[in-house]
Structures are given as C-alpha cells and as structure tokens.
Amino acid sequence: MRAFRFESLTLPPEADAMRRKVRAFLKEERDGGRYAAHRTSWSTFDPEFSKRAAKAGFIGMTWPERYGGGEYSNLQRFVVTEEMLAAGAPGGAHWIADRQSGPQILKHGSERARELILPRIAAGECYFGIGMSEPDSGSDLAAARTKADKVEGGWVINGTKIWTSNAHRVHYLIVLARTEPPSENRHAGLSQFIVDTGSEGIEIRPIMNLSGGHEFNEVFFKNCFVPDDMMIGKPGEGWTRVTGELAFERAGPDRFMSDIRLLVELVDKIGREPNERQAVEIGRLAAHFATLRRMSSSIAGLLERGESPVTEAALVKDVGTAFEREVPEAVRKLLPVEASLDDDDEYSQAMAHVLLHAPSFTIRGGTPEILRGMIARGLGLR
Description:
By secondary structure, the chain is an alpha+beta fold. It contains 11 helices and 8 strands.
C-alpha cells in the first residue's frame, strides 16, 4: 500500500509579497465597482476582468516569458488563486485556460500551438473549454466514443460532448477522442486535440440550467478537421494526458472555495457574539477549510517540484467538493433566510447564488464514485 504525499509547507516570502500585490489589485477592482463579491465566483464569465487581471500579471504566471508568462513559482500562483476565490473575483473567462489547458499545451503541445495560443491566454484574450464528458457515460472518460480518424495533414473528429461549460463563448476546446478502436485496455487508443470552436463541422447547442442560465452546452463534431500540430502529445497518449490535466483541475483551491463568500457573509451576519451552536458549527467549518487549504498548498509544492500528484488531487477534489456541498446546508440551519438574487441583503444573495450552483459541485471534475476508485487504485488497494 502506498501513502498520500501531503507535506507541511511554509510559503516563501515571495509568495507573501504576491499575496499583497493581488489583494491590492482586487481591492481596487471592488472599490471601483467593477464587481460585487457576493454575486460572482470563479465560474462568472467576465472577459474585461480577465484582461485587467492579465495586465496585472495574474494569468500564465508560471509560464516562460517567451510565451507571455511571468516565470513565477506554483506557490506564487497558488496564493493568487486563493485570493481571487476569497474575493469572489469573476475570473471564469480565463480560469480553465490558465488552470489546465495552458499548462497542458506548454508541456505537451507543439511549438506552433504554444506560440499561437499561450501568449493570448496570458493576455486574457483566449479562453478554453473542456471536451471530455459524453452522453450516457457520466464521469467514465474511458467510455468515450468520439472518434478521430487520421487523414492527410491531420485528423477528422466525429462525435458528441456534453456539459461543456462556456463552449459558446470560448475560443478552443481540448477534446478527448478515440484514435484507435476500443480494446480490452479501455484506457488505450485515446488522444487529445486542441479544437478551434470556429472550425467547420462544429455545432454548439445550449443546455439551460434550472435557474434559466446558459453555461452548459452539447457540442457536436461532424467531420471536423484538426491539424496534426494541434494534437497534445502523441497518438494514444490521451489517457495519460487527461489524468495529468485533471490533477491541475482537481487539486486547486477552486475545489473547496466555490462558496467561500457564503461562509464569509455568514460570519459577518452573525457577528462577534455567536451562540454556542453557531460557534461550534463555524469552528468546525473553519477547521475543515484550514485542513483542505493545507492539503491543496502541499499539492502546489509537489507541482513546483515537477511531480504529478494525481491521487492526492483526486482526494482533495472529493473531500473539497463535499465540504462545498455541506456549507449551504450548515448555513441554512444556523441562520435561516428566504434567499433571493434580487434581495438587497448580501447574505441572502450569496445564499441564493450558492443554492443554485451547489448541486453541481460534486459532479464537475469527476463524481465521488470515480474519484474514490482512483484513490483506491493510487493507494494500491485495487
């Protein structure tokens, strides 16, 4: 049996300096009335905010300068991420590109893809979506049926992806497709492609959520051509590439801080004299949050050393999103409120926002069942 790697981590002085810098930027944003923290989250799509964040140096932070990056450490990027989340910053436009698509292209993409795409991401002008999930397959990525057939100069993709966040707004999707027929090894024969959403042969249809919002989409590929140099890695490496990408997606603070603004508003609403029940519950939530933060920062340290903490990332995502689902339920018991997005009260607005989105927290990025299977496998238990 193997053990988890969650080492104690002390952030270096340069990370503390970066924290002060991003806090000053976010204070100026809020003071200027550019966004309201209780009405936004990391999934809020605001291209103008992304451009301002890029100008301040907060996108593509760890990338080489020649691709528009700042050559900062993963630990400096970690503090920027958690400060953005704590402040309720509307970073959804650039979030996926900065968090996982850009690093994938930097490490495994062609030189043309790096030169064409990375500087635009770092400038806050290029956005990505995730083309993984498919109809009837849930979180089982190995069940992918979308096909990519080799042709002269590239590949032709046919198939369907679903629950693709912001596909109607982004410039590219990273698509997982089968480049070989299925075999006994379900993880073999898969490859990843960078697909321009403006390409011929792509149809994007909206999926409206229960609140009437349009974030999700179904994406159809019909003879969509992708050049050879828009493949990530080599043919057949898709499973390795996608699990590495999911380590970026699953381990960050966004997997336990999606509703942090609700917890902040709760504490402000209760004030400095909570009753016994409120004090115990807030203390418990704060302790869980502190533990998750330590686990996530430890993974940032592993990434800084060039390691790929896939199992640890799966654990943070599983425990973190369970915490996110728990927060609104605990809050409703401590301070009941008729939540409404139209209410003038910030606590009520925060509660309404979280209640609309909380059901998706444990699903996006992999369901608990899939994650726990990965964790068991990573520990040598199956």
